[in-house]
């Protein structure tokens, strides 16, 4: 049966996944809109950067994030100058790393949804006197709703399943940075296979539920 440390890891994982997903939906939506409509030559490099976590080994991404957030890194010097201290081995460091690692899983479904809308509905709204901002909120966002559902589901699920990046950035600090994936690893290291089975089985059930929801409610969405 799960113990107190397992419950703490589950709570921390849910908290991290929720905040990561909400932050990425807010920050990723304008980025996805720009990628869907921009015609500049550097859209390709920007899209490559956004999708880089899909192919980059988590340990590599985590290593360079650790350096960037460290005392000699650009972000580390910035946070120290603001009196915030260093991000590695803190929950907020996990949040920043998770946002970067899950970025393509949120941006791509929204971008695809915006592209599927096309320009025609926005042009019609403009002829009726709607400003670009009005058209975005009254036309584009409602029509792109399935993409947002997929983005939220994939972003949340991907954050729940993270291991390499969160281990590099957060380490294994109980009730502070130890998420479910790291807790399973700790149980296996300690030969506590029964506890590992509980958590690993729960992760399998969760992953199945996520894919079932995606296939059931977003049948026409392209998947990563």
Overview of this structure, please?
The chain is an all-alpha fold and 224 residues long. It has a single domain (4-217), classed as Orthogonal Bundle (MetI-like fold), CATH 1.10.3720. The protein is built from eleven helices and no strands. Helix 1 (4-37) runs antiparallel to helix 8, helix 5 packs antiparallel against helix 9 (164-170) and helix 6 (120-127) crosses helix 7. The chain is globular and about 65 Å long. The two termini are 34 Å apart.
Quick overview:
With 224 residues, this protein is mainly α. Helices cover 75% and strands 0% of the residues.
Q: Helix proportion of residues, in percent?
A: over 70%
Number of helices: 11
CATH superfamily: MetI-like
Major sheet size, sense and barrel closure: none
* Alpha-beta content class: mainly alpha
CATH class assignment: Mainly Alpha
- Pick out the low-confidence regions: none
CATH topology: MetI-like fold
- How far apart the termini lie comes to 34 Å
Shape from CA axes? globular
Order of helical and strand elements: HHHHHHHHHHH
Q: In the CATH hierarchy, what is the architecture at level 2? A: Orthogonal Bundle
How many discrete domains?
A: 1
The averaged pLDDT comes out at 89
Radius of gyration over all CA atoms, rounded: 20 Å
Beta-strand proportion: under 5%
Number of strands: 0
Q: What secondary-structure arrangement, pairings included, does this model have?
A:
Layout lengths: L3 H34 L5 H9 L6 H12 L4 H8 L9 H27 L2 H8 L4 H12 L1 H16 L3 H7 L9 H10 L3 H25 L7
Helix pairs in contact: 1-5, 1-8, 3-9, 5-8, 5-9, 6-7, 8-11, 10-11
């Amino acid at each position: 049966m799960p113990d107190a440390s397992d419950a703490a890891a589950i709570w921390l994982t849910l908290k991290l996944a929720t905040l990561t997903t909400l932050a990425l939906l807010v920050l990723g939506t304008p980025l996805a809109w720009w990628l869907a409509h921009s015609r500049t030559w550097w859209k390709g490099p920007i899209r490559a950067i956004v999708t880089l976590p899909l192919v980059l080994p988590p340990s590599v991404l985590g290593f360079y994030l650790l350096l960037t957030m460290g005392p000699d890194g650009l972000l580390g010097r910035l946070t120290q100058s603001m009196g915030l201290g260093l991000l590695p081995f803190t929950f907020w460091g996990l949040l920043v790393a998770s946002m970067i690692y899950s970025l393509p899983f949120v941006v791509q479904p929204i971008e695809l949804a915006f592209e599927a809308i096309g320009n025609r509905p926005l042009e019609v709204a403009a002829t009726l006197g709607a400003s670009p901002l009005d058209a975005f909120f009254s036309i584009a966002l409602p029509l792109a709703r399935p993409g947002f559902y997929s983005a939220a589901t994939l972003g949340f699920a991907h954050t729940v399943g993270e291991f390499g990046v969160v281990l590099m950035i957060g380490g294994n600090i109980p009730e502070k940075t130890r998420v479910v994936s790291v807790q399973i690893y700790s149980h296996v290291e300690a030969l506590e296979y029964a506890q590992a089975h509980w958590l690993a089985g729960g992760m399998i059930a969760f992953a199945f539920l996520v894919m079932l929801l995606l296939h059931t409610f977003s049948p026409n969405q392209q998947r990563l």
